[in-house]
Design a protein that fits this description.
about 50% strand, about 120 residues
């Protein structure tokens, strides 16, 4: 079956790092643009980062630019999100999704894309 599975979340102190993974099964991930979104309690969903399926171009939200790096390993059918210099405000459930696009400078999910179930990232001392 078609499936996306996020992993790599956990509890980390401010200034620490985590690497999230988005592993695909049932389809070839490199044919899709893949985006990372996050949802914190009481806050709206935020598009964090995206990597294209063609030229490998990337997008980052202003809130994470310079700290997060998205990458793709087609041989492993996996997209990664390296998160450095983590802040408490990065605390959220992180989701990966297909069928995403950047419109007017913001990452937008597609109506018919695939989503994983999310992985919890908690940044706290």
């Amino acid at each position: 079956q078609v499936q996306l599975v996020e992993s790599g979340g956990g509890l980390v102190q401010p200034g620490g790092s985590l690497r999230l993974s988005c592993a695909a099964s049932g389809f070839t991930l490199d044919y899709y643009a893949i985006g990372w979104f996050r949802q914190a309690p009481g806050k709206e969903r935020e598009g964090v980062s995206c990597i294209s399926s063609s030229d490998g171009s990337t997008y980052y939200a202003d809130s994470v630019k310079g700290r997060f790096t998205i990458s793709r390993d087609n041989a492993k059918n996996t997209v990664y999100l390296q998160m450095n210099s983590l802040k408490p405000e990065d605390t959220a459930v992180y989701y990966c999704a297909t069928e995403v696009t950047v419109v007017a400078g913001k990452l937008i999910p597609g109506q018919f894309g695939y989503w994983g179930q999310g992985t919890q990232v908690t940044v706290s001392s």
